[in-house]
Amino acid sequence: MDWKAVYGDFSDLPKSEQHSLFQAIKDTLFPEPKEDIANMVGEIREVRFSSGLACVHCGSVNNKRNGKYRSRQRYICKGCGKSFNDMTASPISGTHYPHIWLKYFQMMVDGVTLPKIAEELEIHVSTAFYWRYKILIALRSIGFSTLKGIIESDETYFLESDKARNPSRIVNLANVAVKRRSVASAKSKSAWLSLMTETETFCQKLLDVDAPLPMKSTKH
């Protein structure tokens, strides 16, 4: 197909579709380099092993090169015999998406929610959650220094509503006397007073010598 014919069809498209087609051609012919964290291996090595290359398993400094795997340098420890690379035992160890980790870091720092991150980076929500967990565990292992200095604070206002409040209503608390008494309570108190009165009368008769004792009547 002649490019002039394609250009003629391109002129017939709406402006929005022209822009989309132009962007697609641009991305195909001039792709932007991905922010692959694998391209930062040199910087990561300098920071992680600033005091010398040490085994991430036993801490021994007696190591040697052990070939490469997927263009990444591997090392073998002469002390424990285990191999490792610059990413071993790090949050990005074994990742299948090294090109989106930097963007994930930035979105996490910006406070973007996990569903939004998963949608933007085209990964599953469980993957975004697992990555955040790995980062938080790594930060906890590093530890945090004590912050010192002047702390500044400002007043904070909270909205408050008096809806459904009646300040004039008397609240019946446990220790507050009330005017009315329940029927069951009144009956029980009346029966108790009657019993006390009868008991007191009977005891008084026992103490009174001149008073005749009540005798049980018998029938023959």
From TrEMBL:
InterPro entries, sorted: Transposase_27_IS1
PANTHER family: INSERTION ELEMENT IS1 1 PROTEIN INSB-RELATED (PTHR33293)
Protein name: Insertion element protein
Organism: Paenibacillus alvei TS-15
